[in-house]
């Protein structure tokens, strides 16, 4: 297959990322290649070795996935084209014949530990936890005999010759992880009516109310922020950029003018894409001059005024 027909993802095989990727219809016609890290998956796209990469960006328990947020903010520019929402529940995977009383050491991704902590305290209070590079990698380590159990997706059991000793493990009900399909920048697809826009912006100068001033660019145009997270820029303590998701598409007048307002006032703005929302929920557009018609009408009024027809 050509590189354009290849999708990379955070591996190894048997991760929740692979499960999320396989929910996309086009995955059936692509070569799916596991990578050792988020950075490696995205670099394959940057280098032209893959047409897209699916990586986790946010979960409902811990918030943003910092490796992905930082790669999108500071690495060579890429664009988000789709998102996938995947409900998350863990299984305790063990070698055949293992009983719960035999489990003295467990492993999994650090994000998994947060989501199974209460279950561990109740069922395996004396088990020793050691983190793995991914949940699937934890399953591989159990297969090799280095741990007694791994918290991973139940679907990973067959890949690594293990058995689920317990299933549907999650401390938080309705735990969900959000994944994004990322590719090289290109012309935007048309809006669907239920879209999301992502961007990163840097303050021009730190002063009281600086962030508030920028958030008002969204508020006065009726653009709802769905997520905002600060990330250190690496340039010193107190130096941060802000990663945001907002309702709407860049072609929506209120969204486009918001980003233009940020571009005027910020040191830098990186546009990360406008793409369909996985939940297909349309944006909440309030009355009071924030609809596209309101912006068009105001522009027409200005033109009439300039022509002496105001």
Q: Kindly report the oligomeric state of this protein.
A: single chain
The helix/strand series, from N terminus to C terminus, equals EHEHEEHEEEHEHEEEEHEEHEH
Helix count?
8
Please outline the major beta sheet: 6 strands, mixed
The percent of residues in helical segments reads 25-40%
Task: Provide a compact summary of the structure.
The protein contains 8 helices and 15 strands. The chain is α/β, with parallel strands linked by helices and about 300 residues long. A hairpin with a 3-residue loop joins strand 3 (about 50-60) and strand 4 (about 65).
Description:
The protein is α/β, with parallel strands linked by helices and 310 residues long. It is 27% helix and 30% strand. It contains eight helices and 15 strands. It has helices spanning 16-21, 38-46, 66-74, 110-123, 135-143, 210-219, 253-265, 292-306, and strands spanning 6-10, 31-35, 52-59, 63-64, 79-87, 90-94, 105-108, 128-131, 149-152, 163-169, 176-183, 195-202, 225-232, 240-247, 268-276. The strands form three sheets. Strands 1, 2, 3, 4, 5 and 11 form a six-stranded mixed β-sheet that branches. β3 (52-59) and β4 form a beta hairpin.
